[in-house]
Design goal:
The protein contains seven helices and twelve strands. The protein is α/β, with parallel strands linked by helices and 264 residues long. The protein has two domains: 179 residues, Rossmann fold, CATH 3.40.50.1000; 71 residues, Hypothetical Protein Ta0175, Chain: A, domain 2, CATH 3.90.1070.10. Strand 3, helix 3 and strand 4 form a beta-alpha-beta unit. Helix 2 packs parallel to helix 7. The protein is globular, with a radius of gyration of 18 Å. The mean pLDDT is 95.
């Protein structure tokens, strides 16, 4: 494919020598078959020990992510594809302000009902009840053509649309991972330059994290190749391993880079 990602280099190079923060997707990127592993938790602890911060940037619900941000060895987490940020010290930042939550949820429900009239098989996601800014339904066995139709329908209804390997999202226009992450970097990590941040993902809803205009260093775990033909923006590098093992591969690579720099 054009502009195909390069494999992680064997020897650490300048692109990774100054990384101070990892902004990473969760499902399909940190998980393995939908679960966290002991290797992942160890990787996060190892990164924290050398001063590399991790911010999770996920499409998962506010309710789920609020707990994760406090329980995991990370600097914070962005929920709902750029809707809300939870820092590790329990601070909550509304990246997409919702003036009237009840009305907002009612409008989202109405939009979902419209989509169901065209696709009766779609089902509300289990975590939808814990959401604030968006509405989700399971991606299940929807085809690429059906996903494009859903995108078009959402646009006609005045909503944005994206999807991952687990869920489809009806969301406010303009809400995406890159917009939310850029705001958090400005407000919470202002001393970090774009070259000190590496973004990581695996699905179409991570595409904005691969936009080199904002994030010059990006990595896709190997399973991102399943969506190669659907991504306008592709990661610069790609791991050899898939899912959480791919993130651990990147973690090991960064730790090796730190070790080499400390010995020079």
């Amino acid at each position: 494919m054009p502009n195909a990602p390069c494999p992680l280099p064997i020897v650490p190079i300048n692109s990774f020598s100054n990384i101070r923060l990892i902004a990473t997707d969760m499902d399909g990127t940190l998980t393995r078959q939908g679960k966290f592993t002991s290797a992942l938790l160890q990787a996060l602890e190892n990164l924290a020990e050398v001063g590399i911060k991790v911010v999770i940037v996920t499409g998962r619900s506010a309710g789920w992510v609020s707990g994760l941000s406090n329980l995991m060895p990370i600097a914070g987490a962005i929920a709902e594809n750029g809707g809300i940020f939870y820092s590790s010290n329990s601070e909550t930042v509304a990246l997409t302000p919702i003036p009237n939550l009840l009305a907002h949820r009612q409008h989202l429900a109405a939009a979902f009902a419209q989509l169901q009239s065209h696709f009766p098989q779609i089902q509300e996601s289990a975590d939808n009840r814990f959401r604030v800014t968006d509405w989700t339904f399971d991606v299940a066995s929807l085809t690429s053509a059906e996903l494009q139709t859903l995108n078009n329908l959402c646009q006609q209804l005045g909503w944005g649309f994206t999807y991952s390997n687990v869920q489809c999202h009806i969301k406010p226009l303009g809400q995406d991972k890159a917009v939310g992450l850029l705001q958090i970097l400005r407000e919470h990590f202002p001393s970090y330059s774009p070259q000190q941040v590496v973004t990581v993902g695996d699905s179409p809803n991570d595409e904005s994290l691969f936009d080199q205009r904002y994030f010059p260093v990006s990595v896709g775990v190997a399973n991102v190749m399943e969506y190669a033909n659907q991504l306008q923006h592709k990661p610069v590098y790609i791991t050899t391993a898939a899912e959480g093992a791919g993130f651990c591969e990147l973690s090991d690579y960064l730790l090796q880079t730190v070790k080499i720099l400390n010995n020079t």
